[in-house]
Write a structure and sequence with these properties.
With about 70 residues, this protein is mostly helical. The mean pLDDT is about 90.
Amino acid sequence: IYMPIINSIKLLRKSKGITQQQASDFVGISIRNYREKESGYLPFSQFEISKLITLFKLNAEEVLFYFFLSE
């Protein structure tokens, strides 16, 4: 359940043309911490995931697909 979310976050970030630095700034964490989370070494908090959903401008259907239905 955990790795599909990480893969979705990385895929979404890249598809939106957003750098790791931009994402980390928006979420409010260090670039190092963001990289560790996106690599799966540390978990994203629910708050951080909600910030990323806002950054990626996802609608409810997209959130379901990328965070709950993707494998």
